[in-house]
Amino acid sequence: MSKVDKGKAPAPPSSNWAKLQKTLPAPSTTKTSKQKKSEARRAFNDQERQSKKYGLNGVSRYLGKAEFERSSGQSSSSAVAGPSKITVPAPSNAKEDVILLPAPSDSPLVEELRGMVSGKGVLNESKKAPGNYIAIDCEMVGTGPNGSESNLARVSIVNYHGHILLDTFVQPREKVTDWRTWISGVRESDMIGAPNFEDVQKQVAGLCEGRIVVGHAVDNDLKILLLSHPSPLIRDTQKCKMLREKANSKHPGLKRLSEMELGIRIQQGSHSSVTDARATMGLYRLHKVEWEKQLYHTTEAYRAKIGKSKKGDNTKRKRDDEEDHVADEDEQVQGGKRGKKGVEQFPGGGRKGISSGLGVIVRKNGKRVESGAGHREEKRNAPTSQSGAGGNWWESVDE
User: Fold this and answer.
1) Which of 47, 148, 189, 357 matches a 20 to 30 Å C-alpha distance to 141?
2) 39 — pLDDT class (breaks 50, 70, 90)
């Protein structure tokens, strides 16, 4: 064999080799299922090692892989809480994609509600007023060990037609240990410029006062806001009898109800409290006639009670309220009658219709003596030395 000079380039392949190359199949670039499984297993093991290293538990271990998009088209490279270069002012601009499925019916109301939930409806000024019905939804973040406790981070309120009355991020009252971005849609950057809890709480209380509040598991929203609302003025879509029967569940989810009743798909990624509030209002409006018919007497009785109490703010309390303060009023009575509005005094220091308490149970000579007919009979047969001398039967009772 002849030796090849080191300084020279290798000879090009022969024409026969070039022809053979054309007939050979191109190398496959696709991965086999076995290779895919191997890579997935390797990635999972790397993730497990990372979670043990940093002590991540629960949903926190998956936050590093999730990507969440804003309506502005900007995306965050990492969902884990940390320094952010993007400032998102309150109220929130985060939106949730609403997918329109085939409508469950051809009713004009259903079409209107589908447009309302997706935010495509156009409202005139008259439909932007708060009105008598509002829907509320909140988003929470995790505080405490491993984010096990919840803290308010965003609250949204819409009116009967889906118009946004309030939508704002809220400064958590405790240190956040899990932003729960994968479901809440909230990031640390959203807290820049967000109002504090007390200010938002006052706004929510003012909007809820005297109105019917619609929500899904609304007790949780009111609890996180540290607010209460009269039960006759609450419409909870999770507790609605008609919706429970249709979903065949005692605790139907908002996502399932929205698909089933309105033909819309929500909560595909991170949630939007505006979309969820509109969805609950849509479900309420769909069943409003029958729902309100069931609660009519309860609601009207409550409103009548509130109306009477407001009218009587400057008048005296009713008799049942006065009986709680009998002792205080008796000290003001000096005897006889106290004018037209005074309290009439009767022998024994009592008042008409008010028991003196002496006729309950007493003991005479160590034996129990009942009030009523027995007392009257005993007094009638008592010696004249006691009654004639002006003595009373209870003066002879041994203590």
Assistant:
1) 47
2) confident
Q: Domain limits of the chain? A: 99-308
- Nearest Cα neighbor of 158 from 167, 171, 145, 150 is 167
CATH classification number, 99-308, choose in 3.40.50.1370, 3.40.1490.10, 2.130.10.10, 3.30.420.10: 3.30.420.10
3-class DSSP state of 324: helix
271 alpha-carbon distance from chain centroid: 15
Reported as a pLDDT band with limits 50, 70 and 90, residue 343 is very low
Beta partners for residue 152, in sequence order: 140
User: Which position has the higher pLDDT, 307 or 392?
Assistant: 307
Q: Are strands 176-178 and 133-143 parallel, antiparallel or unpaired?
A: antiparallel
Q: Are 107 and 186 in contact (CB under 8 A)?
A: no
Q: How many CB atoms lie within 10 A of CB 354?
A: 14
Q: Give, to the nearest 10 degrees, the angle between helix 108-118 and helix 254-262.
A: 140
The answer to whether 216 and 238 have CB atoms below 8 angstroms apart is yes
Q: Which two tokens stand for residue 173?
A: 């009252």
Q: In percent, how much of the chain has pLDDT > 70?
A: 56
What radius of gyration do the chain's Cα atoms show?
Answer: 38
Tell me the one-letter amino acid at 24. L
CA 265/CA 275 separation, integer angstroms: 11
pLDDT in tens, 139-195: 999 999 999 999 999 999 999 999 999 999 999 999 999 999 999 999 999 999 999
